[in-house]
Amino acid sequence: xxVILISEYFEPASSDESLYRSVCAETKHPECIQLLQSNPxxxxxxxxxxxSGFLLDxxxxxxxxxxxxxxxxxxxxxxxxxxxxxxxxxPNTITSFHSAKLELTEDTMTASYDAKVAGDxxxxxxxxxxxxKLENPPINQGIEILSxxxxxxxxxxxxxxxxxxxxxxxxxxxx
Length: 175
Fold this sequence. Notes:
Elements: H1 2-7, H2 19-27, H3 32-36, H4 40-43, H5 48-76, H6 80-103, H7 108-118, H8 120-131, H9 138-174
Helix pairs in contact: 2-9, 5-6, 5-9, 6-7, 6-8, 7-9, 8-9
Organism: Lupinus luteus
InterPro entries: Invertase/methylesterase_inhib
Protein name: Pectinesterase inhibitor domain-containing protein
């Protein structure tokens, strides 16, 4: 099963729509295209496997930027909640995106899960920022978008292969 899931990542892009645009359409997030179109690796990806790797690279980079930002905010506003953001939530986000990248070729379900939970930390930090009357920075929103991109892409493909397997099993029973 893992070989089938991994092999589909090499599926080429259709000629009408770029891969990243189709993934953004699945997220239904209005800022998705704007975030991704500035990265030439993402916009030029020729298959979903490469796109997934490039998305995770960008996600890890953005998470590191967010971590730096949260540490600076914590120095100015030393609340317990911001301490958790700076010293726990964001480091865990970085680790989750990094783990997802390492798992991409071996275990796509785990990679998808790790990418999804990576977005949880920055979401908690929105509350911490609100507590000290600060706006949610674009970096938090970007991480949320990247987390969703990875999750919707992998979840949809896993569902597709599960349906295909069910159809094959039903067809075999009819014989």
